[in-house]
């Protein structure tokens, strides 16, 4: 028997639907994702920590859940909003339904609501607080609680590893600074033979350099990049090293900009999905990209830095990539590891490996 559940937004609007997943209530920042596939990678992406995800694609759960495609083992999302729930998935890799997966993660969901309407509201008004409750009789009290709710600021600390983890490889040694990294970033580096050392977000520059890295990877992650000033200071120190390749992805891109003296800002509704066109400003080539961010680099603030613009989003003109004028440092706002999403930008990992080999010989740690 279907159980009623209600999605309430801080502007007072509410959407009746039906419950799946965990039975608990949830509160968080409500955002939308435009991907037509990849719901499993999305729900397990650490960058969604503290958020309620609304999927614009109408049917979710149709190919079920498997153990191999998770981007994080402990999903941090607060809830999931979908139009139609597929409770009889069909895929040879499927081991459980979406409902079963959310129950195991203790994450509530709601289905049977007009997700396109919610998306339009967020596009017009911007991201806002939302809650999923099993009883909405006291609507005014619920809305008052939403308006008073303070969004968390420790999402990065919640997701980062607590101690260093080493993955063997015969190629260049990469120190991956973990701000909430997706597992496919690690997989792409390992696939290219890299030795990878994953370190906590607050690892000092001195400790990072003690590993004698051939390159530094700055991962994606949730939240406001300005919330970790100590990491920004560390990255600034690392960027001052002579001929040390650094590659930043998503949050890592924003941290490269902040460490260079640029600014970031919170977007009205962000970019979340697997279908965002990005243009290389030098070649004019357009790539379809996977994206998940609510903050962006203020491109006008780059003028007084040593960074130059390399990529822009075609949908809204926001910054999507930079490189250093003289050093082997570059970063992108989108996700070249493509989990989920197109593989157009996967070549950036090859570019990073090439920079490491060119700058330090690459194989000296074999």
TrEMBL record:
It comes from Trichococcus palustris. Composed of two chains; the small (or glutamine) chain promotes the hydrolysis of glutamine to ammonia, which is used by the large (or ammonia) chain to synthesize carbamoyl phosphate. Tetramer of heterodimers (alpha,beta)4. The active site is at residues 250, 335, 337. Residues 3-133 form the Carbamoyl-phosphate synthase small subunit N-terminal domain. It is an enzyme of class 6 (ligase). Pfam families: CPSase_sm_chain, GATase. Belongs to the CarA family. Pathway: Pyrimidine metabolism; UMP biosynthesis via de novo pathway; (S)-dihydroorotate from bicarbonate: step 1/3; Amino-acid biosynthesis; L-arginine biosynthesis; carbamoyl phosphate from bicarbonate: step 1/1. Keywords: Amino-acid biosynthesis, Arginine biosynthesis, ATP-binding, Glutamine amidotransferase, Ligase, Nucleotide-binding, Pyrimidine biosynthesis. CDD domains: GATase1_CPSase (cd01744). InterPro entries: Anth_synth/Amidotransfase, CarbamoylP_synth_ssu, CarbamoylP_synth_ssu_N, CarbP_synth_ssu_N_sf, Class_I_gatase-like, CPSase_GATase1, GATASE. GO terms for molecular function: ATP binding; carbamoyl-phosphate synthase (glutamine-hydrolyzing) activity; glutaminase activity. PROSITE patterns: GATASE_TYPE_1 (PS51273). It catalyses: L-glutamine + H2O = L-glutamate + NH4(+); hydrogencarbonate + L-glutamine + 2 ATP + H2O = carbamoyl phosphate + L-glutamate + 2 ADP + phosphate + 2 H(+). NCBIfam families: CPSaseIIsmall, PRK12838.1. This is Carbamoyl phosphate synthase small chain. Residues 1-172 are annotated as: CPSase.
């Amino acid at each position: 028997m279907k159980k009623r559940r209600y999605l309430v937004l801080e502007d007072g609007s509410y959407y009746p639907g039906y419950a799946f997943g965990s039975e608990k209530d949830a509160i968080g920042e409500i955002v939308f994702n435009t991907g037509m596939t990849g719901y499993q990678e999305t729900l397990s992406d650490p960058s969604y920590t503290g958020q309620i995800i609304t999927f614009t694609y109408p049917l979710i759960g149709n190919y079920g859940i498997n153990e191999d495609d998770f981007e994080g083992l402990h999903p941090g999302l607060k809830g999931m909003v979908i139009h139609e729930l597929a409770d009889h998935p069909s895929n040879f890799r499927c081991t459980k339904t979406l409902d079963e997966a959310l129950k195991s993660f203790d994450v509530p969901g709601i289905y049977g609501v007009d997700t396109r309407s919610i998306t339009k509201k967020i596009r017009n008004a911007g991201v806002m607080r939302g809650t999923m409750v099993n009883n909405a009789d006291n609507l005014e009290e619920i809305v008052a609680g939403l308006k008073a709710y303070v969004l968390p600021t420790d999402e990065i600390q919640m997701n980062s590893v607590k101690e260093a983890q080493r993955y063997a490889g015969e190629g260049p040694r990469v120190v991956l600074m973990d701000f909430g990294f997706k597992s496919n970033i690690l997989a792409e580096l390992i696939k290219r033979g890299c030795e990878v050392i994953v370190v906590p977000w607050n690892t000092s520059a001195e400790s990072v350099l003690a590993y004698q890295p051939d390159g530094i990877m700055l991962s994606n992650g949730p939240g406001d990049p300005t919330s970790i000033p100590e990491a920004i200071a560390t990255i600034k120190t690392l960027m001052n090293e002579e001929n040390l390749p650094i590659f930043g992805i998503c949050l890592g891109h924003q941290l490269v900009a902040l460490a260079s003296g640029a600014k970031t800002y919170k977007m009205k509704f962000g970019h979340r999905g697997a279908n965002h066109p990005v243009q290389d400003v030098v070649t004019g080539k357009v790539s379809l990209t996977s994206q998940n961010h609510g903050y962006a680099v203020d491109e006008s603030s780059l003028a007084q830095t040593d960074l130059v613009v390399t990529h822009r989003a075609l949908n809204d003109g926001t910054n999507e990539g930079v490189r250093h004028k003289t050093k082997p440092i570059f970063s992108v706002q989108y996700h070249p590891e493509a989990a989920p999403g197109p593989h157009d930008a996967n070549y950036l990992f090859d570019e990073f490996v090439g920079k490491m080999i060119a700058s330090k010989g690459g194989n000296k740690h074999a």
